[in-house]
Amino acid sequence: MTNRISTGMLYQQSISTLQAKQASLARINNELTTGKKLLTAKDDPVGAGAAVGLDRAVAELERFGANANAVSHRLGMQEAALTQAGGVMGRITELTVRANSASLSNEDRKAIATEITSLRANLIDIANSPDGAGRYLFGGTQDGTAPFARVAGGVSYAGDQTRRQVEVAPQLFVADTMPGSEVFLRVRTGDGRLDAAADPANTGTGLVGSFGVADSGQWDGGRYRITFGAGGAYDVLDDAGVSIGSGVHASGDAITVNGARVVIGGAPADGDVFTLAPAGTRDMFATIDRLIGALNMQPTTDAQRAAQQNALQGAMRDIATAQDHLIDVRANGGAQLGALDNAAALRDSQSLTLESTLSGLRDLDYAEAISRFNLEKVAVEAAQLSFVQMQRLSLFDLLR
Predict the structure, then answer these.
(1) 120: pLDDT strictly greater than 80
(2) In this model, does residue 350 exceed pLDDT 90?
(3) How far apart are the C-alpha atoms of 30 and 323, rounded to whole Å?
(4) A cellular component term (GO) from this record (predicted)?
């Protein structure tokens, strides 16, 4: 059987070939215009799917970057606020040292108490510092309202104890600002490890001097009471009231208890009590209130003056420990800022890798595309010429 090749078939075939070449040339022209070789998903279904996944990864890195910027802003404002708080506590320390001078009158100490009261109010304002975005720095996750409020007898805290963990890079988290409960409320007393105090009911002139843990291997972390009798005799009682040591005290002597020591000056009276125990916690505002109370005392006897001096010395130690605590909080914030820098470097590295991979999938190789364009152009011209020649094929040409 012989297949018939018609003029119409040749004409249609030439038209189809010409249109296909023109479509290919137009596509290459679009690639050159956009600079992309992956114009639609049908061009490379596998590559298009991979590109979509990479786009999502790049967008995720951008979101991580936005998280990092927000946390960096808040941590920077926390640093500024803590610097201010440290300045306030430093000024209170200066005033307390001045108030501890024997040359000052009761009125002088009242004037100092007035300034410290103003500094306490300033410290509350710092604790309620906003972050500039409608939130508060020290409220924990309950940061929609001011966390601290003045109440009768002290300060109340409306925040929580939770510290946000913010993802700033894939599987890399950075802590947000610390909750106010950890910054301003749970502050160690004494030297941060040990605390010593005179009983407010003491009637002698005994003064708490230096104290600390002299031998960590012997210190058992217990609570002890040093009770004085006549002639400077003393007993050391444990928390159960059992005597574990005794002696005769002379002013300025150190009394040692299971690796801890405390120096007591002056002359304790019969029945006076001093305590030696692990440092507890107290909020900064209560410590300042105790200091203000000591400054407003009106001592008229040696025992009252000794009680005031013990209170001032204790407040001075507690404020110094609070200053160290603020430095520790600032160091923690600095560590988080350092982690943010590391996260930024990680994001930049990953973003560069992703962008490079995306470029390989989507971006056009201009040299190769121009070469293909020229080849397709030649093919189109050849198809056009072939079509022209085909049109001339007719039996009528042979009848001329």
Answers:
(1) yes
(2) no
(3) 67
(4) bacterial-type flagellum hook
Q: What is the DSSP string of 162-175?
A: ---EEEEETTEEEE
Domain 54-189+318-351 part of CATH 1.10.10.60: no
Residue 195 vs residues 206, 230, 279: alpha-carbon distances, Å = 16, 25, 5
Q: Where are the chain's structural domains?
A: 54-189+318-351, 201-278
Token pair recorded at residue 87: 């300045």
CA dihedral (387, 392, 394, 400) in degrees, to 10, reads 180
Which pLDDT tens digit goes with each residue over 161-185? Answer: 999 999 998 888 999 999 999 999 9
Please tell me the distance from the alpha carbon of residue 304 to that of residue 198, in angstroms, as a whole number: 12
Residue 390: its pLDDT value, please? 62
Instruction: Give Cβ neighbours of residue 55 (< 8 Å, ≥ 6 apart).
Output: 358
Residue 293 exposure: Cα atoms within 13 Å on the Cβ side: 14
Helix residue ranges per DSSP H, 231-365: 284-295, 302-362
228-233 — which CB contacts under 8 Å span 24+ positions?
228/204, 228/268, 228/269, 228/270, 228/271, 228/272, 228/273, 228/274, 229/270, 229/271, 230/270, 232/267, 232/268
Tell me which amino acid residue 188 is: R
Is residue 89 within 8 Å of 188, Cβ to Cβ?
A: no
Short-list 293, 261, 272, 252, CA closest to 112: 293
User: Which amino acid is it at 27?
Assistant: R
Q: What is the mean pLDDT of the chain?
A: 85
Full DSSP string of 204-224:
S--EEEEEEES-TTT-----E
CA gap 306, 204 in Å, rounded: 8
DSSP 43: G
For residues 127 and 146, what is the distance between their CA atoms, to the nearest angstrom? 9
The span from the first CA to the last CA of the chain, in angstroms, equals 33
